[in-house]
Write a structure and sequence with these properties.
Number of strands: 3
Strand content: 5-15%
Largest sheet: 3 strands, antiparallel
CATH class of one domain: Alpha Beta
Structural class: mainly alpha
Strand order of the largest sheet: 2-1-3
Oligomer: single chain
Number of helices: 11
Helix content: 40-55%
């Protein structure tokens, strides 16, 4: 049947409203013990290196989906739901087999992204805090050959990840650093290690700006690393208080 003018106007208004509120539609949180914290800075704060739309989609949709799926996976497993996330990931072999893969993928995704937002911030090269300092700088020189070599080796490891995954710098209780990469949403936490910082090399982290140029994204990402935050994580690691 033909649509009358009033029906068309109502439909157009509904479409316009949906277009204006995509973030609200995708930010619906499932009930459970795990929650998504807001970004600690504005979505456009990391431009031009990471664009605002990528940050919104990455945080509000992708990360929220990991949280929702993780809550769904632990819903009927109270003992697992009551554990800190880093302990769940370190003891995946003890998690009920029926939800182990879901918890591996979504718990890893939640932990990785929580760390990711924390170690970035506005500023960039040449701004205060744009280089590691103190004990962190000493550890980078001692264990990784200095900042320039760290960047080269880290970017190389990230480029070599086949498909989707992450590249990390891990830290031991005595402050020793190492670079390692993981596929998908796996994390060194699953081996009882601690992550100092890491970069997401899934395409959703960079494709709107960099398309298939992952090396360009990896190189640009150093402009948004918050070395003061990484320094805080290093201090927490050596104090035994670093979690995810």
């Amino acid at each position: 049947m033909p649509l009358d003018r009033r029906t068309l106007m109502r439909g157009s208004a509904a479409l316009a409203a949906a277009a204006l509120a995509p973030r609200a539609a995708f930010a619906q949180a499932a009930a459970g013990p795990f929650t998504l914290a807001p970004l600690p800075y504005a979505a456009n704060a990391l431009e031009p290196h990471i664009d605002a739309k990528t940050m919104e989609i990455h945080h509000d949709r992708h990360h929220q989906a990991y949280v929702n799926n993780l809550n769904a996976a632990v819903k009927d497993h109270g003992q697992v739901a009551a554990m800190p996330l880093q302990d769940i990931l370190a003891k995946l072999g003890e998690v009920p087999e029926s939800v182990r893969t879901a918890i591996r993928n979504n718990g890893g995704g939640h932990a990785n992204h929580t760390m990711f937002w924390q170690v970035m911030g506005p500023g960039g090269a040449g701004s205060p805090g744009s280089a590691p300092a103190g004990a962190l700088a000493e550890a980078i020189t001692r264990d990784l050959g200095g900042l320039d070599k760290l960047k080269t080796d880290f970017n190389g490891a990230g480029t070599r990840v086949f498909g989707s995954g992450w590249v990390f710098v891990t830290v031991t209780r005595d402050g020793k650093l190492a670079i390692e990469s993981k596929p998908n949403q796996d994390t060194p936490l699953m081996e009882g290690k601690r992550v100092l910082f890491g970069n997401d090399v899934w395409e959703h982290a960079y494709y709107l700006t960099y398309q298939n140029r992952r090396p360009d994204y990896l190189a640009a990402w150093w402009n948004v690393v918050s070395w003061p935050k990484v320094g805080e994580r290093y201090a927490a690691a050596t104090a035994g208080t670093l979690t995810i």
